[in-house]
Amino acid sequence: MLRSRNFRLVTTSWTFFLVLLLVVALPVWSETLDELHKKALKEDGVLNCYCSLAQINAEKIYPVFEKRFPGIRINHVDATSDKLAARAITEARGGRVIADVLEFGLENVIQVYEQGLVLEKLPPEAADYPATLKGSYWVANNMIFFVGAWNTDRVKKQEEPKSFDDFADPKWKGRLIAEPRDAELVIGLMHKHKSLEKARAILSKIAANNVEFHKGHSQLAELLVAGQAGACFTCYSHHYPPRIKKGAPLGYFLTEGIAGIIVVAVMKNPPHPNTAWLFARWAASEEGQKVYAMGGRTPAHPKVEPTEKIRPKTIYAVGADDVKQFPKYEKIWKEIFKLR
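The structure corresponding to this sequence follows.
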Protein backbone atom coordinates (compact mmCIF):
# COMPACT_ATOMS: atom_id res chain seq x y z
CA MET A 1 0.00 0.00 0.00
CA LEU A 2 2.79 2.42 0.97
CA ARG A 3 4.80 1.47 -2.13
CA SER A 4 1.75 2.15 -4.34
CA ARG A 5 1.19 5.57 -2.71
CA ASN A 6 4.87 6.49 -3.20
CA PHE A 7 4.66 5.45 -6.85
CA ARG A 8 1.62 7.73 -7.36
CA LEU A 9 3.46 10.62 -5.68
CA VAL A 10 6.53 10.16 -7.90
CA THR A 11 4.36 9.86 -11.02
CA THR A 12 2.41 12.99 -10.08
CA SER A 13 5.62 14.90 -9.42
CA TRP A 14 7.08 13.95 -12.80
CA THR A 15 3.81 14.84 -14.54
CA PHE A 16 3.80 18.25 -12.86
CA PHE A 17 7.45 18.78 -13.84
CA LEU A 18 6.82 17.87 -17.49
CA VAL A 19 3.75 20.13 -17.70
CA LEU A 20 5.73 22.99 -16.16
CA LEU A 21 8.56 22.41 -18.63
CA LEU A 22 6.16 22.48 -21.56
CA VAL A 23 4.50 25.66 -20.32
CA VAL A 24 7.87 27.38 -20.02
CA ALA A 25 9.14 26.13 -23.39
CA LEU A 26 5.88 26.53 -25.32
CA PRO A 27 6.25 30.24 -26.22
CA VAL A 28 9.65 29.55 -27.75
CA TRP A 29 8.86 26.34 -29.61
CA SER A 30 5.40 27.37 -30.81
CA GLU A 31 6.47 30.77 -32.15
CA THR A 32 5.78 30.81 -35.87
CA LEU A 33 8.02 32.38 -38.49
CA ASP A 34 5.38 35.07 -39.03
CA GLU A 35 5.37 35.93 -35.32
CA LEU A 36 9.14 36.09 -35.34
CA HIS A 37 8.96 38.30 -38.44
CA LYS A 38 6.97 40.88 -36.45
CA LYS A 39 9.77 41.02 -33.88
CA ALA A 40 12.38 41.31 -36.60
CA LEU A 41 10.60 44.32 -38.12
CA LYS A 42 11.35 46.25 -34.93
CA GLU A 43 15.05 46.04 -35.80
CA ASP A 44 16.73 47.89 -38.69
CA GLY A 45 15.05 45.98 -41.48
CA VAL A 46 18.34 44.48 -42.59
CA LEU A 47 20.15 41.17 -42.20
CA ASN A 48 23.93 41.17 -42.45
CA CYS A 49 24.65 37.80 -44.02
CA TYR A 50 28.30 36.75 -44.23
CA CYS A 51 27.58 34.18 -46.89
CA SER A 52 29.76 32.44 -49.45
CA LEU A 53 26.76 31.70 -51.67
CA ALA A 54 27.63 32.44 -55.29
CA GLN A 55 25.80 35.39 -56.82
CA ILE A 56 24.23 33.17 -59.47
CA ASN A 57 22.43 31.34 -56.62
CA ALA A 58 22.00 34.29 -54.24
CA GLU A 59 20.06 36.24 -56.88
CA LYS A 60 17.45 33.47 -56.90
CA ILE A 61 17.34 32.62 -53.19
CA TYR A 62 17.64 35.78 -51.12
CA PRO A 63 14.90 37.75 -52.94
CA VAL A 64 12.45 34.95 -52.04
CA PHE A 65 13.28 35.45 -48.36
CA GLU A 66 12.80 39.21 -48.73
CA LYS A 67 9.43 38.70 -50.43
CA ARG A 68 8.37 36.14 -47.82
CA PHE A 69 9.27 38.56 -45.02
CA PRO A 70 8.51 42.11 -46.28
CA GLY A 71 10.48 44.92 -44.72
CA ILE A 72 13.71 42.94 -44.37
CA ARG A 73 16.60 43.33 -46.78
CA ILE A 74 19.55 40.95 -46.94
CA ASN A 75 22.93 42.64 -47.00
CA HIS A 76 24.89 39.86 -48.66
CA VAL A 77 28.56 40.20 -47.73
CA ASP A 78 30.02 37.91 -50.37
CA ALA A 79 33.47 36.32 -50.18
CA THR A 80 35.09 32.93 -49.79
CA SER A 81 34.48 31.05 -46.53
CA ASP A 82 37.96 31.64 -45.14
CA LYS A 83 37.84 35.38 -45.80
CA LEU A 84 34.40 35.71 -44.24
CA ALA A 85 35.51 33.84 -41.13
CA ALA A 86 38.63 36.01 -40.83
CA ARG A 87 36.54 39.16 -41.26
CA ALA A 88 34.03 38.16 -38.58
CA ILE A 89 36.82 37.34 -36.13
CA THR A 90 38.78 40.53 -36.87
CA GLU A 91 35.69 42.72 -36.42
CA ALA A 92 34.84 41.07 -33.09
CA ARG A 93 38.38 41.54 -31.84
CA GLY A 94 37.98 45.20 -32.72
CA GLY A 95 34.99 45.35 -30.42
CA ARG A 96 32.20 45.25 -32.97
CA VAL A 97 30.01 42.40 -34.22
CA ILE A 98 28.62 43.28 -37.65
CA ALA A 99 27.52 39.90 -39.01
CA ASP A 100 24.12 38.54 -38.01
CA VAL A 101 24.43 35.11 -39.57
CA LEU A 102 27.15 32.98 -41.10
CA GLU A 103 26.46 30.80 -44.10
CA PHE A 104 29.58 29.05 -45.32
CA GLY A 105 31.76 25.97 -44.91
CA LEU A 106 31.60 24.04 -41.64
CA GLU A 107 35.36 24.16 -41.12
CA ASN A 108 35.38 27.97 -41.23
CA VAL A 109 32.29 28.32 -39.03
CA ILE A 110 34.11 26.18 -36.48
CA GLN A 111 36.96 28.72 -36.53
CA VAL A 112 34.54 31.52 -35.62
CA TYR A 113 32.91 29.36 -32.95
CA GLU A 114 36.25 28.58 -31.33
CA GLN A 115 36.67 32.33 -30.78
CA GLY A 116 33.47 32.31 -28.71
CA LEU A 117 31.53 34.30 -31.31
CA VAL A 118 28.72 31.91 -32.30
CA LEU A 119 25.40 31.43 -30.54
CA GLU A 120 25.17 27.89 -29.18
CA LYS A 121 21.55 27.27 -30.00
CA LEU A 122 19.63 25.26 -32.59
CA PRO A 123 16.40 26.30 -34.31
CA PRO A 124 13.43 23.95 -33.73
CA GLU A 125 13.53 23.06 -37.44
CA ALA A 126 16.82 21.24 -36.80
CA ALA A 127 14.80 18.34 -35.38
CA ASP A 128 14.25 17.13 -38.97
CA TYR A 129 17.99 16.69 -39.61
CA PRO A 130 20.15 13.66 -38.77
CA ALA A 131 22.92 14.05 -36.21
CA THR A 132 25.57 14.15 -38.97
CA LEU A 133 24.04 17.32 -40.39
CA LYS A 134 23.84 19.44 -37.25
CA GLY A 135 25.85 20.36 -34.19
CA SER A 136 25.14 22.33 -31.04
CA TYR A 137 25.38 25.65 -32.91
CA TRP A 138 24.99 24.88 -36.63
CA VAL A 139 22.62 23.22 -39.07
CA ALA A 140 23.63 22.01 -42.52
CA ASN A 141 22.09 24.22 -45.19
CA ASN A 142 23.28 22.72 -48.43
CA MET A 143 25.79 20.23 -49.72
CA ILE A 144 28.51 21.10 -52.18
CA PHE A 145 29.82 18.31 -54.34
CA PHE A 146 33.28 18.31 -55.82
CA VAL A 147 33.21 16.58 -59.21
CA GLY A 148 35.18 16.52 -62.41
CA ALA A 149 34.11 18.86 -65.25
CA TRP A 150 35.43 19.66 -68.70
CA ASN A 151 35.05 21.70 -71.85
CA THR A 152 33.43 19.47 -74.48
CA ASP A 153 35.15 21.34 -77.30
CA ARG A 154 38.55 20.53 -75.85
CA VAL A 155 37.88 17.04 -74.51
CA LYS A 156 36.87 14.31 -76.92
CA LYS A 157 33.93 12.07 -76.08
CA GLN A 158 36.11 8.97 -75.77
CA GLU A 159 38.47 10.62 -73.28
CA GLU A 160 35.85 12.07 -70.93
CA PRO A 161 36.71 11.21 -67.29
CA LYS A 162 34.42 8.98 -65.24
CA SER A 163 36.10 9.41 -61.85
CA PHE A 164 38.71 11.48 -60.01
CA ASP A 165 41.24 8.71 -60.52
CA ASP A 166 41.06 9.23 -64.29
CA PHE A 167 42.83 12.59 -63.95
CA ALA A 168 45.99 10.71 -62.93
CA ASP A 169 46.40 9.69 -66.58
CA PRO A 170 49.34 11.53 -68.25
CA LYS A 171 47.03 12.53 -71.13
CA TRP A 172 45.78 15.34 -68.87
CA LYS A 173 49.19 16.99 -68.59
CA GLY A 174 48.86 20.75 -69.02
CA ARG A 175 45.10 20.55 -69.34
CA LEU A 176 43.91 20.67 -65.73
CA ILE A 177 42.78 23.47 -63.41
CA ALA A 178 41.75 23.35 -59.74
CA GLU A 179 41.09 25.45 -56.64
CA PRO A 180 44.17 25.72 -54.38
CA ARG A 181 42.20 25.29 -51.12
CA ASP A 182 40.33 22.07 -51.91
CA ALA A 183 42.04 19.65 -49.53
CA GLU A 184 38.68 17.86 -49.37
CA LEU A 185 39.98 15.85 -52.32
CA VAL A 186 42.48 14.15 -50.00
CA ILE A 187 39.69 13.20 -47.60
CA GLY A 188 37.30 12.04 -50.29
CA LEU A 189 39.83 9.84 -52.05
CA MET A 190 40.92 8.48 -48.68
CA HIS A 191 37.31 7.40 -47.97
CA LYS A 192 36.95 6.01 -51.48
CA HIS A 193 40.06 3.83 -51.31
CA LYS A 194 39.99 3.35 -47.53
CA SER A 195 43.61 4.40 -47.47
CA LEU A 196 45.33 7.75 -47.04
CA GLU A 197 48.40 6.43 -48.84
CA LYS A 198 46.37 5.43 -51.90
CA ALA A 199 44.76 8.86 -51.94
CA ARG A 200 48.18 10.47 -51.75
CA ALA A 201 49.49 8.30 -54.60
CA ILE A 202 46.61 9.22 -56.93
CA LEU A 203 46.89 12.92 -56.17
CA SER A 204 50.65 12.79 -56.74
CA LYS A 205 50.01 11.44 -60.24
CA ILE A 206 47.47 14.21 -60.85
CA ALA A 207 50.00 16.78 -59.62
CA ALA A 208 52.50 15.46 -62.16
CA ASN A 209 50.12 16.73 -64.84
CA ASN A 210 51.07 20.32 -64.01
CA VAL A 211 47.77 21.53 -62.56
CA GLU A 212 47.05 25.25 -62.89
CA PHE A 213 45.36 26.74 -59.81
CA HIS A 214 42.78 29.55 -59.66
CA LYS A 215 40.88 30.83 -56.62
CA GLY A 216 37.10 30.68 -56.76
CA HIS A 217 34.98 27.84 -58.08
CA SER A 218 32.88 30.17 -60.21
CA GLN A 219 36.12 31.30 -61.80
CA LEU A 220 37.01 27.69 -62.60
CA ALA A 221 33.68 27.20 -64.33
CA GLU A 222 34.08 30.36 -66.39
CA LEU A 223 37.60 29.35 -67.44
CA LEU A 224 36.18 26.07 -68.73
CA VAL A 225 33.37 27.91 -70.52
CA ALA A 226 35.98 30.10 -72.23
CA GLY A 227 38.03 27.06 -73.21
CA GLN A 228 41.08 28.24 -71.29
CA ALA A 229 41.48 24.79 -69.78
CA GLY A 230 40.47 21.26 -70.72
CA ALA A 231 39.14 20.01 -67.39
CA CYS A 232 38.81 20.71 -63.68
CA PHE A 233 38.89 18.12 -60.91
CA THR A 234 37.71 20.31 -58.01
CA CYS A 235 34.58 21.75 -59.59
CA TYR A 236 31.21 22.24 -57.90
CA SER A 237 28.47 20.20 -59.56
CA HIS A 238 25.79 22.89 -59.08
CA HIS A 239 27.71 25.35 -61.26
CA TYR A 240 27.18 23.35 -64.43
CA PRO A 241 23.46 22.79 -65.22
CA PRO A 242 22.66 26.54 -65.52
CA ARG A 243 25.68 27.18 -67.73
CA ILE A 244 24.93 24.18 -69.93
CA LYS A 245 21.34 25.40 -70.36
CA LYS A 246 22.75 28.65 -71.72
CA GLY A 247 24.69 26.71 -74.31
CA ALA A 248 28.11 26.49 -72.67
CA PRO A 249 30.23 23.56 -74.01
CA LEU A 250 30.53 21.77 -70.69
CA GLY A 251 30.32 18.26 -69.29
CA TYR A 252 30.64 16.87 -65.75
CA PHE A 253 30.43 13.47 -64.10
CA LEU A 254 28.04 12.38 -61.38
CA THR A 255 29.35 8.86 -60.96
CA GLU A 256 31.00 10.00 -57.74
CA GLY A 257 31.50 13.18 -55.77
CA ILE A 258 33.12 14.49 -52.62
CA ALA A 259 30.70 16.35 -50.36
CA GLY A 260 31.41 19.40 -48.26
CA ILE A 261 28.80 20.86 -45.90
CA ILE A 262 27.69 24.49 -45.96
CA VAL A 263 26.06 25.44 -42.66
CA VAL A 264 24.12 28.29 -41.11
CA ALA A 265 24.98 29.65 -37.68
CA VAL A 266 23.94 32.76 -35.79
CA MET A 267 26.49 35.15 -34.33
CA LYS A 268 26.48 35.75 -30.60
CA ASN A 269 25.06 39.21 -29.78
CA PRO A 270 24.39 40.15 -33.43
CA PRO A 271 23.08 43.63 -34.29
CA HIS A 272 19.75 42.15 -35.43
CA PRO A 273 19.10 39.10 -33.21
CA ASN A 274 15.47 38.42 -34.17
CA THR A 275 16.20 38.92 -37.86
CA ALA A 276 19.17 36.58 -37.60
CA TRP A 277 17.09 33.92 -35.88
CA LEU A 278 14.32 34.34 -38.45
CA PHE A 279 16.75 33.68 -41.29
CA ALA A 280 18.32 30.69 -39.48
CA ARG A 281 14.91 29.11 -38.91
CA TRP A 282 13.70 29.77 -42.47
CA ALA A 283 16.92 28.45 -44.01
CA ALA A 284 16.60 25.21 -42.01
CA SER A 285 12.89 24.76 -42.68
CA GLU A 286 11.47 22.58 -45.42
CA GLU A 287 10.04 25.77 -46.94
CA GLY A 288 13.42 27.48 -47.08
CA GLN A 289 15.23 24.38 -48.25
CA LYS A 290 12.91 24.11 -51.27
CA VAL A 291 13.93 27.66 -52.17
CA TYR A 292 17.61 26.71 -51.95
CA ALA A 293 16.89 23.77 -54.22
CA MET A 294 15.13 26.01 -56.75
CA GLY A 295 18.09 28.36 -56.51
CA GLY A 296 20.44 25.67 -57.76
CA ARG A 297 21.81 24.28 -54.51
CA THR A 298 21.65 20.76 -53.12
CA PRO A 299 19.51 21.05 -49.96
CA ALA A 300 20.62 19.30 -46.79
CA HIS A 301 17.05 18.70 -45.59
CA PRO A 302 16.34 14.95 -45.82
CA LYS A 303 12.92 15.51 -47.38
CA VAL A 304 13.96 18.02 -50.08
CA GLU A 305 15.46 16.91 -53.38
CA PRO A 306 17.60 19.08 -55.68
CA THR A 307 15.89 20.31 -58.84
CA GLU A 308 18.89 19.68 -61.10
CA LYS A 309 21.12 16.69 -61.69
CA ILE A 310 23.82 17.71 -59.23
CA ARG A 311 23.77 14.92 -56.64
CA PRO A 312 26.42 12.24 -57.38
CA LYS A 313 25.51 8.55 -57.35
CA THR A 314 28.32 7.73 -54.91
CA ILE A 315 29.15 10.30 -52.24
CA TYR A 316 32.29 10.57 -50.14
CA ALA A 317 31.33 13.05 -47.44
CA VAL A 318 33.70 15.20 -45.40
CA GLY A 319 32.42 14.55 -41.89
CA ALA A 320 32.86 16.27 -38.55
CA ASP A 321 35.87 14.13 -37.62
CA ASP A 322 37.48 14.96 -40.97
CA VAL A 323 36.98 18.66 -40.31
CA LYS A 324 38.73 18.36 -36.95
CA GLN A 325 41.75 16.87 -38.69
CA PHE A 326 41.54 19.18 -41.69
CA PRO A 327 44.93 20.86 -41.04
CA LYS A 328 46.59 17.47 -41.48
CA TYR A 329 44.91 16.84 -44.82
CA GLU A 330 45.51 20.42 -45.92
CA LYS A 331 49.22 19.98 -45.26
CA ILE A 332 49.27 16.84 -47.40
CA TRP A 333 47.37 18.63 -50.18
CA LYS A 334 49.80 21.54 -50.20
CA GLU A 335 52.83 19.27 -50.12
CA ILE A 336 51.59 17.23 -53.08
CA PHE A 337 50.80 20.24 -55.26
CA LYS A 338 53.62 22.45 -53.86
CA LEU A 339 51.20 25.13 -52.70
CA ARG A 340 51.95 27.77 -50.11
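The chain has two domains: 34-143+260-299, 144-259+313-337.
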